[in-house]
Each structure stands twice: as structure tokens, then as C-alpha cells.
Amino acid sequence: MHNIKIKTEAKKLRSKGETVRDIAKKLDVSFSTISFWCRDIKLPVSVINKMKFNKKERSIRGLLKYSERKRAQRMKNTFYQKQNGVKMVNKLYDRDILMVGLGLYWGEGYKESNDEMGFTNSNPPMIKFYIKWLGLNNILKDNLIFRLSLNEIFKSKENKIKSFWIEYLKIKREQFSRTTFIKTKLKKASIRNLSIYKGILRVKVRRGLSLKNKILGAIKHIANYQKI
Q1: Which residues pair with 150 in a beta bridge?
Q2: For a disulfide at 47, which of 7, 17, 95, 132, Cβ 3.0-4.6 Å?
Q3: SS3 152
Q4: Domain containing 143: what range?
Q5: Angle in degrees, 0-180, between the axes of helices 94-108 and 209-225, rounded to the nearest 10
């Protein structure tokens, strides 16, 4: 038999809008007993509205916690997947670098259109890798000419962006030809990342026709080797 004080306290808490489950837990009484005691209590409209708000708030908190758990799991999965990628490649040897460089030139390099050996991209690590690859082909940095292409809205930041490339690639300012300014509308994704905008950089090799022909021959060999 429960104490009358506990029953009174249960009704009082229920009148204030507490849930049957919370009251049962707080008073250490079964859910069914609290439900029976409070069955005839009519809650004020203000209390009902408050309960609805609290229920919605709990639902939102639960959704946020669930989303955070999922986000943490995705980050964990991404980390281990990237680590597996590192293990898959392991140490890079000169031939590995050679083949990757050929792939880069196949995608982004000048082909048969002219006698220049040029490579154009906007990704700093990719360009740095390409220059390292050129080094394996006995091309020194001093034999490179760079041309920067910027959207015209970055005209005032030309020197700052150029300084980034000079520091990042360890090259000289004199190696840059005149900057090209492009009058095209930036995509929404680019506008959101204005702080990391570094333009497009062309890397041209002085007197690079001989090496270019050799590279194009290697690429053609790879293309013919494919079995589709």
C-alpha cells in the first residue's frame, strides 16, 4: 500500500505537466500505478501546450543526438578508409611517380595542338607533384614558365595569390608571365570558397618539345595497351 503523501505528490506533479513516466521514476512507483492515480486529472491548456513543446524539444534533441552519432561514425569510417588508401599505395618508387605523372599529363597536359609542353590545373598539391615529376625527367624549376589565370573579381588580389604560388612551389616571381583575367561568372561553389581561391596555373617547360613527344608516345602506348 502506497503512502498517501506519495499519491498526493504524484497528482501534484502531474498537474504541473510532468509525464507519467517521469513521475514514476522520480517517486519509484510503477508506471501503471501513477497512471491510475492521475487518470482523472484534467490538465490546463497552458500545461498541455508546455507538454507539447517539451515533447517537440525532446524530439529535436533526440534527432540532433542521432545526427551527431551518425556524423561521428561517418568521420570515423572516412578516417579508416583513407588509412586503408595509404596502405594500398604504401611507398612510392620512381616508376610509380612516372606513371602517375603520365596520367596527369594525359588528362591536363598540352597534346598535339602546338609545340609547347604545358600543364594547366588549379589544385596546388597536384601541380607540386607534377613539378616533382618533371624533375625525374631532368627538368629543373628554372626551366619552367608560369602563367596565372584569375577571375577578374580577384584583380586586386593578384600579387597575394601569386605570392602563394611562389612560396608553395619555391619558384621565382620572374618566372611568371603576364596574368590572364577571365570575365566569367563564378559558380556558387566557388563563391562559397573565395578564401581558398588560388586561380588556375599553367606550367610550361622551356624547349620542352622533345620531352613532350616522348611523353605523348608513352601515353599512346598506354592507350593502345588497354583491353576493353
Answers
A1: 181
A2: 17
A3: helix
A4: 94-225
A5: 90
> Are 19 and 101 found together in one domain?
no
Q: Report the first-to-last Cα separation within the chain, whole angstroms.
A: 83
**Per-residue b or e along 192-212, where b marks 16 or more CB atoms closer than 10 Å to that residue's CB:** eeeeebbbbbbbbbeebeeeb
Question: For 91-124, how does the pLDDT look when each residue is reduced to its tens digit (9 = 90+)?
Answer: 888 889 899 999 999 999 998 778 899 999 999 9
Give the count of domains, the chain.
Answer: 2
Where would I find the H helices in 90-157?
A: 94-108, 124-136
**What's 138's DSSP letter?**
T
Note whether residue 77 is domain-resident: no
Indicate whether 86 belongs to any domain: no
Nearest to 147 by CA among 125, 126, 119, 170: 119
Contact call for residues 203 and 130 (beta carbons, < 8 A): yes
Q: Judge contact between 150 and 180, C-beta under 8 A.
A: yes
Alpha-carbon span 115 to 121, nearest angstrom: 19
83 within a domain of the structure (yes/no): no
Stated pTM of the model: 0.65
